Structures are given as C-alpha cells and as structure tokens.
C-alpha cells in the first residue's frame, strides 16, 4: 500500500570539499536550456515509484534547499524536513553525525513504513529503479539494495551476494576487492528501521555498513537487484562534476 511508503533523502552534509556558495544539492544540471538541481533527480526517482511523501534530512544552514523544494507540490509529492543535529561526543570522537545518524533522524516519520532511500547528490538510471527494486523483492526480504557496476570500489559500499540475489555482506570502500557492484539506492521495510534505530539511538553505532552487516548476521534478508547498463553518477567532488559535464557534452 503506497500510503505506507516514504522517501528518505539525507542532505545534511556541509559540502566542505566543494566549497560552493550554496548547498551542493542545488548544483545546477543544465539540459535543454532548463535548470534542474542535482537533488531533483532522486526526488523524481521516488515519485516515479508512486511515493507521495518525501523527507529531506538537512542541517540548520539548508535554507536555500528548503526554499527551492518548498512543500513539494511542484514536484508531485509532499515534502517534510528533518534537522540533523550535530552530536555532542563526550568521548572525544568525531562530532560529524554521519549517514546512519541522518537516516535515523527521521525515525519519527519512517517507523512502521517501507523506506525508499537515495542520496541527494546522485543521478541514478533507470528512472524507475525504486519501482523495479521493489518488484524484484520477495515478501520475506527486509532490505533491497539497488546495485550498479563501478570502477571505483574504494568510494562505495561493495556488495557480495549469491546467484539468487541474497546478499552475503557489504564491504565498505575496500582498497582492493574482486567485487564489481556497489549499492546506490535502498528500499527497506519496518524491521530494518527498528534495527537502525536501535543501533544508532541506543547503542551509538554510526557505521552504516556495520549496521547493515549486523542486520544480515541477525537473520534479516537482504536482496541485491543489479541494474546492468544503468547509470549511477555521484557528484561529491569536482572531478566527478567534470566527468558528468563531459558525459553530457558527448550525449549532446
């Protein structure tokens, strides 16, 4: 039932590496003389799957992002915003909240629902990837990982899985590996939301790959859905932005 679906987009990073005068989620992709910010692509991926409620997790500086997307009606959905607060780590560790914390920050909105998660600085094809991933899932599956091939495994969470699609393990940013596919988008059901919340809120675990691997070890079913021939572009660095620009020029 689509009323139990919710989209989740973490956008609380401060974009230090790019040093832009605006949120990196608003980086312009100009095509056919029209402006589209990078984060609009994942919103469209979500609405393509029939998702009517999308949650952005932001930090306190993302006024321009909120100003662009507003309540979401111009994009065919309702949009909520959750502020991810900086952790007060008395043990002397990093105060950066991290991805797992960002995902759990929306727990009051995501609990009990099927969550569709994508990153705000990526372009993913096919456009209907979330619908395809859900269609490929079985009733017993708790988490469905959308996979793409990559030549840069050191940047991503690489996925080891069986021929029947059952995931064995996620190996995060390995320096060397024989694996060729990384996860880029995820669909998960309520059982994993509770596991994530327990790890982050109760145990203080912030390593998302570790959280996924402990879920697998605890008996949750993870399914891999590869998108061979699909596209996954991450705009986290200027090198990747230049690569995207080159790709679009070649297609023009």
Structure description:
With 252 residues, the chain is an alpha/beta fold. The protein has 8 helices and 13 strands. The N and C termini lie far apart (40 Å). The model is unreliable at 90-95 (pLDDT under 50). A hairpin with a 5-residue loop joins strand 9 (157-161) and strand 10. The strands form 4 sheets. A 7-stranded mixed sheet has the order 5-4-1-6-11-8-12, sandwiched between helices. It has a single domain (2-251), classed as Spore Coat Polysaccharide Biosynthesis Protein SpsA, Chain A (Alpha-Beta Complex), CATH 3.90.550. The chain has helices at residues 38-48, 63-69, 98-105, 107-110, 129-136, 190-202, 208-217, 238-251, and strands spanning 5-11, 28-31, 34-37, 53-58, 78-83, 114-118, 122-125, 143-149, 157-161, 167-172, 181-188, 222-226, 231-234.
Could you name the CATH topology?
Spore Coat Polysaccharide Biosynthesis Protein SpsA, Chain A
Task: Give the spatial strand order of the biggest sheet.
Answer: 5-4-1-6-11-8-12
Radius of gyration: 17 Å
Distance between the termini: 40 Å
Structural class: alpha/beta
What is the total domain count?
Answer: 1
Order of helices and strands: EEEHEHEHHEEHEEEEHHEEH
The total beta strand count reads 13
CATH superfamily: Spore Coat Polysaccharide Biosynthesis Protein SpsA, Chain A
